[in-house]
Specification:
Belongs to the ExbB/TolQ family. This protein is mainly alpha-helical and 224 residues long. The protein is built from 8 helices and no strands. The chain has one domain.
Length: 224
Amino acid sequence: MTVSQDLSIISLISQASVLVQLVMGLLAGLSLVSWYWIFRKSFQIRSARNKTNTFERDFWSGGDLNSLFQSAAAARHETGGMERIFESGYREFTKLRGKSHDHAAIIDGARRAMRATYQREVDDLEAHLAFLASVGSVSPYIGLLGTVWGIMNAFRGLSNVSSATLAQVAPGIAEALVATAIGLFAAIPAVVAYNRFAHDIDRISIRFESFMEEFSNILQRQLR
């Protein structure tokens, strides 16, 4: 076997020690799972943003609130987060308005209903972000563990050699460094995706909160 063959990626992985191969396999698995959630969260956040834009356009076009409510209730599983917040708030508002004449209690009840739905929507958007953050922070250290172990094995193998050469040391160190490379390959996309998704979710949640305040003011005006 030539040196170039020994230093090919596939050869380095196949010739690595069992522990280093386990580390590489773990990192590869973490990378695959993180990419799965990266694509899933990307589609979910894009859908949430588009549905929010559509509902805001319909809501502020001056349509009847009862019509919007009936439409949201009829297609609940296809609506977006802001539309579900509107539905829960307006349902509580109409229910309390028929039972109480205390305007403050009616508005407070509608706000609580919207706040509960808001929390569920944001929690759903933030689901599995912690996994991406964990992969981004832990993967380099897992890769470093494999690298340290591989380098230790490489130097132990030289203990019975009277004179070590670069050709003897290079394959062992190279296979150890592959673990670090795989760790970085798993960590970098996860960190970038986490930061991007956290920013997008924060912007969507701000829009939800702004809508709740504005809608509460509209409901308050309807009680006058």
